[in-house]
Description:
This protein is mainly alpha-helical. The protein has one domain (3-104). Helices cover 81% and strands 0% of the residues. It has helices spanning 3-7, 10-25, 29-32, 35-56, 60-74, 82-105. α2 crosses α4 (35-56).
Amino acid sequence: xxxxxxxxxxxxxxxxxxxxxxxxxxxxxxxxxxxxxxxxxxxxxxxxxxxxxxxxxxxxxxxxxxxxxxxxxxxxxxxxxxxxxxxxxxxxxxxxxxxxxxxxxx
Length: 106
């Protein structure tokens, strides 16, 4: 499987989203978030990847449900205001998708 194809799997894209989210928080990532918060963000990153893939596949209703689920998970991240966490997740998802598409279309 090529690098571009690997990046378009749910797991590959989720890893990119998670890395972008971490980068957005900066060096205080581990100090700012509990292990439970970090696991919630990992799970939300996988959900965000599924949202992107469902959206590209034309499954808008399923994508909307998955998006709502991802955002609901972030309500449980105590260290970050929920609105900030949601904004960071979708910013990370957009950056990860952009980077992935650049590889795929190159």
